[in-house]
Design a protein that fits this description.
With 227 residues, the protein is mainly β. It has no helices and 30 strands. The protein has an 11-stranded mixed sheet, with no helix packed on it. Strands 2-5-8-11-14-17-20-23-26 form a 9-stranded parallel sheet, with no helix packed on it. The chain has a 7-stranded parallel sheet with strand order 1-4-7-10-13-16-19, with no helix packed on it. A hairpin with a 4-residue loop joins strand 29 and strand 30.
């Protein structure tokens, strides 16, 4: 069912969808079956850059939302985004261009995701976390509430060059409440980042790191492993 107050410009929508009041679906959007779209959602929005932007913005590309997804109230999805089946996007989420989200993913409330991000299947990102641009997140990752990430140690001094890169988070990693992940670090498969840790260098596989700066505390015990 499509609400009378919704504005739908796309002709690539399944018949089995539910679009609530005051949502806007632009013409570059493709939506699969059994998708629920909440109130005041904007999908397929094109960026409107000014001279303050330090990188080129791609204004092309469709938004694809797979079957059985739910897009909650007040979500904004820009262009060139793929969201695979059975994924839930929570209230007030903003996702910028060039993002791929896998199957069975949960993006919880008030999460912000910048451009050029990949998120693997079965990953969970909890409330109020920020995923910086050029970040890669593997499968079966858990990112707790209030986690922050950065992709530039020079604070934009050299513009958006090839050295600007976010973290690489491998499969089965867990990130604790309020952790900070600094640019261009890698977190090895199966590792745990403790609450409040500041990660400024690579983390090996299957270890627990904690502190500021984060240091290896111990190996991950079997009962805590996500795999």
């Amino acid at each position: 069912m499509i609400s009378k107050t919704a504005q739908v410009y796309s002709s690539n929508l399944s018949e089995k969808i539910d679009i609530k009041d005051f949502s806007i679906i632009y013409e570059n959007v493709i939506i699969g079956e059994n998708v629920n779209i909440g109130e005041n959602v904007v999908i397929g929005r094109l960026p409107a850059p000014t001279k303050s932007m330090v990188r080129d913005i791609n204004k092309e590309g469709n938004v694809y939302i797979g079957e059985n997804c739910s897009i909650s109230a007040n979500v904004v999805l820009y262009n060139n985004i793929e969201i695979k089946k059975n994924t839930l996007i929570g209230d007030n989420v903003s996702i910028f261009s060039n993002v791929t989200i896998g199957e069975n993913v949960l993006i919880s409330r008030n999460v912000t995701i910048n451009s050029d991000v990949e998120i693997g299947d079965n990953t969970r990102i909890m409330d109020n976390s920020h995923i910086t641009g050029r970040t890669k997140i593997g499968k079966n990752v858990f990112i707790s509430v209030g986690v922050s990430m950065a992709n530039d140690n020079l604070f934009g001094k050299n513009g958006y060059d090839d050295k600007v890169k976010g973290p690489i988070i491998n499969d089965n990693v867990s990130i604790g409440v309020g952790a900070i992940l600094l640019p261009n670090i890698k977190i090895g498969e199966g590792s745990i980042v403790a609450a409040g840790a500041v990660v400024n260098k690579d983390v090996p596989e299957n270890v627990i790191v904690a502190g500021n700066p984060a240091k290896v505390i111990t190996r991950v015990p079997k009962y805590m492993r996500r795999k």
